[in-house]
Amino acid sequence: MSVDDGAVFDSGGLDQLIGVLRSAGYRTIGPIVSDGAIVYGTVTGVNDLPVGWRDHQEPGRYRLEQVSDAHLFDWAVGPSTWKSEFFTAEETVWQASIADGQVTFSEPDDDTGPVAVIGARPCELSALAALDRVLQGGAHPDDRYAVRRSGTFVVAVECGAPAGTCFCSSMGTGPAARAGFDLALTELFDGGHRFQVQVGSAAGAGVLAQVPHRSAGDGDRVARQETLARAEARMGRRLDTDDLPDLLARNLDHPRWEEVAERCLSCGNCTLVCPTCFCSDVKDATDLAGTVERQRRWASCFDVEHSLLHGGPVRPTTASRYRQWLTHKLSTWWDQFGESGCVGCGRCITWCPVGIDLTEEAAAIRTSAGALGSVGSVGRRTS
Amino acid sequence: MTTTKRPTLAVWKFASCDGCQLSLLDCTDELLALAGAMRIAHFNELTRNKVDGPYDVSLVEGSISTPADAERIRDVRRSSHRLITIGACATAGGIQALRNFAGDGEYAGAVYAHPEFVSTLSTSTPVSAHVAVDQELQGCPIDRHQLLEVITAELAGRRPVLPTHTVCQQCKGRGTVCLPVAKGTPCLGPVTRAGCGALCPSIGRGCFGCFGPSEGSNTGALAGRLLDDGMAPVDASALFATFYAGDPVFGDRALALAKTGEPAPVDDQDRPA
Asked: In whole angstroms, what is the distance from residue A274 CA to residue A305 CA?
């Protein structure tokens, strides 16, 4: 189905859209304000959305303020990711119990019904596509992820207000939505508060048909382009991706890794707010009743225990762990999955308690790599 | 598990507040099952009945702070097949390890009218400084779910699953918004061991560090953030010294902040596992 940018509705139309999705049996999850941040939770209509809220983001700092207007999406992504909806922070893989000498296994029902994602940003569409590739694109798909992910309806909202830590334009993932949505909205303000709607799938067209709308005119299309151009211009950060995977692979012994390790807390926040980080840890638990349970939880490459093998951890220092994180996102992800593991959402910069900036670290290595000369081949695969 | 071959459990108290051993009684839903699985042979908070050792599993609460305790812990070790220390006192010296920073008798003179009647060691030290310990359970107090995990692991003959990563990861897992980043609230979560379920941050309070340092923590970098957010060095020092002053990762940072007023050189990161 070709992408069509032909429809316009106002916030009342968005409210009806959410209602249509709920009537169709979707769990509608979208942005809400909670505990001083815009996070994802259940939304039943536009009044649950962050009406009039603005965000201010910089490395290690996030603040919200509310102004007296009706803007719904005039902010950039917060700490929540769609990852946690489909690849949950903690889950039971299976349970077993023993009765009369028989061991019985059971698996929990992970099917909690289809989700309608309300307000996913273009960078997040890329992140979901990356997670899909990792968790269900290979020879051994993750069944629990696949069940939760199946039938997802995506209402994207293009980005008009990137934060100080955003760099999606450098990564080619935003601010415009290109793929991975059923409907994509652009919130327009000049000439009346309204949403221009693009249709990205047959399911999207079917839902849009149930919501009153009008055809978009040239004025709407121009307003959308101006919104995206403004977003591009106020992108808080840039990342030079030219030759970046190989540049990092050539600089595994760069002194910058030790320098950043002096500032890095090794707390793991960057990996847990990252919309593409997919590491997990599996443990078995027993209880006094004789039940055995296999549990999976998010893990982080910043945990010492994450690289624990016989004889000790493979990455015992913060420098080695930070290098693992950054080179996986920007370099070896290409080897594994043929694309970048970073979508430029900036969460790892904002939510690092000491404000370590991935774009700054990569730039520092680029700046002084030439002066040092190539550290030499590190045996990186050149697939 | 037959009742005739139940392994025996003993609970011992040293310098402590009893809060950790009460966590065992706090396992209300599991207590009867536990009593069915283990024979509780020595537990003063529960019963006056005492069964002579040796014991299969001993839970030891409290730090070693008197000459008599330094002797008694050897007896406990000799009579225990497995010795598990529970809580910040037993694993790191506890709040009373603040005395380790003071001169001989300085605190005793401030607290007791007749300190000459009190016989104490000049330091409060973890049990592991005196005898071999098979398993340590952190926290002030310990988390009862972790206590059950340790006991059920003992019964199943498996290793317990006890995280060494940070409280931040429990906040992120439960969806708690980061207090330092979103509100500027001082928080030790980025350097503190998980296990509490991120209890304090979930109700809007910064982490107090009551589970001690996480593995590979960088307290110097966090101290810098605390001072940048406007905390006085003396207050940051007190925060690091509250529960785990006896652990050098927190204790040395507290001392450095108190002495220099600076976050101090980062010298404790990259500690090997």
From this structure: 20
